[in-house]
Specification:
five-stranded antiparallel beta sheet; 3 domains; five-stranded mixed beta sheet; binds magnesium ion; binds adenosine-5'-triphosphate; Phosphorylase Kinase, domain 1; Phosphatidylinositol 3-kinase Catalytic Subunit, Chain A, Domain 5; 419 residues; 13 helices
Length: 419
């Protein structure tokens, strides 16, 4: 645990095609005269001289000799925040440390190096050797039990207790709020997502079925599979930011939609959450703007048609395996069943009528997705027909019980979509 005074760390990066990290620069977190948290980042000269050097973030931290400064997000640059733990990881770290909350840098430094993307953090000028040991699927039962104990707050309050020590096995640096861990299987790394005992339906099976349904609708989705351990279901989602080579894992850079939007998660900052803005910002960064804009449009339609109202900007990302950026495969697709049959809202604005998950509204901004109106209408109609025709059979074919499928019936193609 770092002391409050030492608010600086080195930022490491695994360069494209490599399996170990180099030092990209230094991040310093301090307070300005008004007592606001104030972040500074500077690339290391040696890194800038390296012909293989790539930007750690295409939005805020392009390759340059300048000192970057920010007071937004408590002094955290978006790409650094993306690489840090989110609600779930913070909870694991706090329980492990036996206190909360911790400083922003503590969270970064305490999260082990299975974080999304290509960045790492540490107090030494040079990065540590890459981690070689990963959880295996055989460990899933233990990991699931640990996650459940944390959710239920069933763990001792003593940081020295073995169970509390073991918590770090869950990994803390994948984002999100739901209980999860990272495991290795079949020469790949996977995000293992667990059910919670207070879920209204079997979430892992439903999310698995949604990833399938999305594929049937023509979306590009993360690869996934279901495992049952000790009678409990676990969803394994293959990590699209890691690839196994004979030397180890390569790492793709990754930044979230939140960073692309230069936005925050605080409720008062949500007026900046917008798909049309996201697509415009993304178009300026990615290698194939037309292709990715169309794919994002499909995702907006799909989210509206399955009432995925938890489609917040961290559930979208761009990745760079080599030097160029592209939209990541879709992940975290979850239906919901709001009471209203007339109006449901996505998490982001999606058209002239704000967040309204409605075909006309979504179509109103077709041009910003680089689509002709007729092309956009065809996408809406095709996905609507596919979801309407197959949601039930796809859920049942992928292990969702009849009872859960019925519970979720009102999520699909809700009447307000076509008003
Ligand atoms: N297949 C994947 N490959 C790489 N990174 C991933 C993958 N799936 C998810 N992630 C990263 O992990 C984070 C958490 O995953 P996910 O969104 O599935 O979890 P969650 O807990 O359900 O999230 P939420 O809090 O939105 O409900 C994502 O925001 C993304 O950064
Ligand atoms: Mg998520």
């Amino acid at each position: 645990m770092i002391s409050k005074a030492s608010a600086e760390c080195f930022v490491y990066i695994t360069l494209p095609g490599e399996t170990s990290a180099v030092t990209a620069g230094k991040f310093v977190l301090s307070q300005n005269a008004r007592n606001d948290a104030f972040g500074q980042f500077v690339y290391r000269g040696k890194y800038l001289d390296d012909p293989r050097a790539v930007e750690i973030d295409p939005v805020e931290l392009k390759l340059s000799k300048r000192t970057y400064e920010t007071v937004r997000l408590n002094g955290m640059f978006g790409a650094l925040r993306d690489a840090g733990p989110d609600y779930w990881g913070r909870r694991v770290i706090e329980k492990h440390a036996g206190k909360a909350p911790l400083g922003e840098l503590d969270y970064l430094l305490e999260s082990p190096d299975d974080r999304a993307g290509a960045l790492g953090f540490g107090l030494n000028t040079e990065p540590p050797a890459p981690k070689r040991k990963f959880n295996q699927t055989i460990d899933l039962e233990k990991l699931q039990a640990l996650a459940e104990a944390l959710v239920k707050d069933d763990l001792p309050n003593d940081p020295r207790a073995q169970q509390v020590q073991d918590l770090m096995l869950l990994g803390t640096s994948m984002g999100g709020a739901r209980p999860k861990a990272v495991v290795q299987a079949d020469g790949a790394l996977w995000v293992a997502k667990f059910n919670r005992s207070d879920d209204s339906w079997n979430n892992t099976r439903v999310e698995y079925a949604m990833l399938r349904l999305a594929r049937e609708c023509g979306l590009v989705t993360a690869e996934s599979r279901l495992e049952t351990v000790g009678g409990k279901d676990v969803l394994l989602v293959k990590r699209f930011d890691r690839e196994k080579t004979t030397k180890g894992y390569t790492r793709a850079r990754m930044v979230s939609g939140l960073t692309i939007l230069r936005a925050d998660e605080a409720p008062e900052a949500r007026q900046n959450w917008s798909y049309p803005v996201l697509v415009e910002e993304m178009r300026r960064i990615v290698e194939e703007p037309k292709k990715d804009a169309k794919e994002l449009f499909r995702r907006v339609c799909f989210n509206a048609l399955i009432s995925n109202t938890d489609d917040h900007p961290r559930n979208h990302a761009i990745i760079a395996k080599e030097t160029s950026w592209k939209l990541s495969p879709a992940y975290d697709l979850t239906p919901s069943t709001p009471i209203s049959l007339e109006r449901r809202d996505l998490a982001l604005d999606c058209g002239d009528q704000g967040r309204y998950a409605n075909a006309k509204n979504i179509l109103s901004q077709h041009a910003r997705f680089l689509l002709e109106l007729s092309e956009a209408e065809k996408i809406v109609n095709d996905i609507r027909a596919q979801v309407e025709g197959t949601w039930y059979d796809t859920m049942r074919a992928h292990g969702v019980s009849e009872q859960d499928a019925e519970r979720l019936r009102s999520a699909f193609v809700y009447p307000g979509f076509s008003l």
